[in-house]
Amino acid sequence: MPKLTDLPPVWLALSLGLVWALDRLVPWGIFGPRAQAFGAALIGLGLALMAVAAAQMLARRTTVIPKNDPAALVTGGVFRLSRNPIYLGDALVLAGAILWWDVPHGVPVLIGFMALIQHRFILDEEARLKRHFGPQFDAWSRRTGRWITGPF
Questions:
Q1: Is 151 contained in some domain?
Q2: 16 lies in some domain
Q3: pLDDT tens digits for 107-141?
Q4: Structural domain count of the chain
Q5: pTM score, two decimals?
Q6: How far apart are CA 84 and CA 2, in angstroms?
């Protein structure tokens, strides 16, 4: 059984709680109603991305638990867009919440969340994938971005 701190959704929940608390402590609404609609769309997109990625991993009979060893390297579907679509989905949910709650001073929480996820989970997962799948992982990582694929 993993420790709570080994579960990325716990970090997302803590980050969401921090953004919500920032809104309550220092209300500073500047985004407006259009931002709330965009925030809702980001939250929906993030949740959908997480669900699709998890379903693709489960279909390949590999783990979604970060510290467990993978049984397969999933490179198709949403994994063509991002090597970490579940974490990208988490970041979209957090960004959406920042817009929904109109908390521009929550942006550093998003940046900190992404840095924490990368250092606490992603780098270890990539090392594990490289050990298990070697050249396959190398080829996939050359063509697919860690967070998102594109000219960024």
A1: no
A2: no
A3: 999 999 999 999 999 999 999 999 999 999 999 99
A4: 1
A5: 0.93
A6: 20
